[in-house]
Design a protein that fits this description.
CATH topology of the largest domain: Tetracycline Repressor, domain 2
Low-confidence stretches: 212-216
CATH architecture of the largest domain: Orthogonal Bundle
Number of domains: 2
Number of helices: 9
Structural class: mainly alpha
Largest sheet: none
Radius of gyration: 20 Å
Mean pLDDT: 87
Number of strands: 0
CATH superfamily of the largest domain: Tetracycline Repressor, domain 2
């Protein structure tokens, strides 16, 4: 009986998260109440409070799931391309561009993050959480770049922090623009050339190189 109850609680949690993603994506975070989510999920507000402290906690869980999903994909590519970090990076970049077009859940998550959440009022604490995620993202990108440099696939003089800023800005800018006007270009079809353009920049742009060290 205990195992069944635990399973039911897990299913209820998934129902709440799915309903929240749907409501946040369609109506925005600030315009969606926990009562709205409860109705959409077919549960009571008490059930939501049993799983989540408030709307901020619920949204944070949604973002955490989004991040963990990317980590799982990266592990798959690392297994597929052992000792080839640039192919892992290339595959990950393509996934980030292609997934919103192929997967409605992923698209909804991106719409919430980019267009449907205001960092005001009760959502203000999420701004700090997002800032921390940004810093962690830069560190992860730098780690990937470091592996590529060690493998001789990117220039040794590459300024990794500068490159990480460019990569994140390039990728999030393209995804955000597509989400705002999906009819303006085919992000799934264009993904390969968008990725190769970025990698070409990493390989050849003198502006992404480290300053030359002065000789003693």
């Amino acid at each position: 009986m205990a195992r069944k109850t635990k399973q039911q609680a897990l299913e209820t949690r998934h129902q709440i998260i799915d309903a929240a993603i749907e409501r946040f994506s369609e109506f925005g975070v600030s315009a969606t109440s926990l009562a709205d989510i409860a109705t959409a999920a077919g549960v009571t507000r008490g059930a939501i409070y049993w799983h989540f402290k408030n709307k901020t906690d619920l949204l944070n869980e949604i973002w955490a799931q989004s991040e963990s999903g990317l980590e799982d994909v990266e592990q798959e590519y690392q297994a597929k391309y052992p000792d080839d970090p640039l192919s892992v990076m290339r595959a990950m970049l393509r996934y980030v561009f292609e997934a919103p077009a192929r997967d409605q859940r992923r698209r909804s998550l991106m719409e919430i993050i980019f267009h449907k959440c205001e960092f005001v009022g009760e959502m203000l604490p999420l701004q700090i959480m997002q800032q921390n995620l940004y810093l962690e993202c830069y560190e992860k990108i730098e780690q990937s770049l470091s592996h590529c440099i060690e493998a001789g696939q990117l220039p040794a003089e590459l300024n990794m922090r500068r490159a990480a800023i460019v990569i994140r800005g390039y990728v999030t800018g393209i995804v955000e623009n597509w989400l705002f006007m999906p009819e303006s270009f085919d992000i799934e079809q264009d993904a390969p050339i968008l990725v190769e353009t970025l990698i070409d920049m990493l390989k050849t742009s003198p502006n992404l190189s480290q300053p030359a060290l002065s000789q003693a």
